[in-house]
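quick one, 178 residues, struct below
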Amino acid sequence: MRRGPQRPEEPYKVNERITAPRVRVVGENIKVDVYPIQQAIRLAQEQGLDLVEISPNADPPVCKVVDYSKFKYEQKKKQKEIKAKTQKVVIKEIRFGPNTEEHDFNFKVKHAENFLKEGSKVKATVTFFGRSIVYKERGEILLLRFAQALEEFGKVEAMPRLEGKRMGMLLMPKVGKK
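---
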């Protein structure tokens, strides 16, 4: 037996799919009250609309008299707006060696300053190659000096921490700086 394409499960129960015996009905041109399910469906049909269960966990469940296709469209629109408002966090990485010279250090501070001004987080990493791991304190001093050089543009979110042969620190932009 072949089946057609499966439709995704509807997020809301509509009309006859509502299983509760009594529901609280809300909507335009409706007296907000608790009705038996059959009467609630009849109220919706008299207006040429659907009965949609919007709050199934309430006691009794809340249903709204509305045009279901229009309701779904509005819900999708709200989801898109919420998604558009969420801010995407960008993390830019700046890498050092434990023996980074002054000029290179200043050059990387300038880059990090620009990243923080544009609202990105900055992950500063010191990578220890070979036996240079014995100079862990140099890496930590370098990262703390880096944070101090950028203190007017960003603040330290995660202090320097050694993970294997890398020591990292995270800086986030200060709010209100652009």
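The first strand starts at residue 22 and ends at 27.
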